[in-house]
Specification:
By secondary structure, the protein is α/β, with parallel strands linked by helices. It has one domain (about 5-60, about 70-125): 2,3-Dihydroxybiphenyl 1,2-Dioxygenase, domain 1 (Roll), CATH 3.10.180. Helices cover about 25% and strands about 40% of the residues. It contains 3 helices and 8 strands, in the order βαβββαβαβββ. It has helices at about 10-25, 50-55, 80-90; strands at about 5-10, 30, 35-40, 40-50, 75, 95-100, 105-110, 120-125. The strands form 2 sheets. It has a 4-stranded mixed β-sheet with strand order 1-4-3-2. Strands 5-8-7-6 form a 4-stranded mixed β-sheet, with helices on one face. A hairpin with a 2-residue loop joins β3 and β4 (about 40-50). α1 runs antiparallel to α3. The model has no long low-confidence stretch (mean pLDDT about 90).
Length: about 130
């Protein structure tokens, strides 16, 4: 099994540029309607909000109606979470919390991406 997490985004190109900067990596797929980034054994997909509406139609509420409301969290365990947080902020994210020790044994920082998804960059401290 391989996990694929797909974020519905307002503008695919803008979001792809953001994640390219944050992850310091090129997408493994970048076609109209889907951009994908490899995250180890998982894939982060970026799909335009309009694309999922075309795909599922009236069965799905319009994701744009929740724009700005956190709809997902991407928790990345990385070697240098401070560097990821800096890149995210430089690329347009809003800081929610700096890198701090957390009660579950990680140090983690939190930011909000331009589409309202929460990003966490962490490393184990215990």
């Amino acid at each position: 099994m391989r996990a694929q997490l797909i974020f519905y985004v307002r503008d695919q190109e803008t979001s792809a540029r953001f994640y390219r900067a944050v992850l310091a990596a090129a997408p493994v797929l970048d076609v109209p309607g889907m951009t994908q980034f490899a995250l180890g054994d998982a894939i982060l997909g970026l799909m335009p909000e309009a694309g999922i509406l075309r795909l599922l139609g009236s069965e799905l509420p319009d994701p744009a109606s929740a724009r700005g409301v956190p709809r997902a969290e991407l928790y990345l365990v990385v070697d240098d979470p401070a560097a990821y947080q800096r890149r995210a902020l430089s690329a347009g994210a809003r800081e929610l919390s700096p890198l701090l020790p957390r009660s579950w044994g990680d140090s983690a920082s939190y930011a909000l991406d331009p589409d309202g998804h929460v990003l966490a960059f962490a490393h184990a401290t215990a």
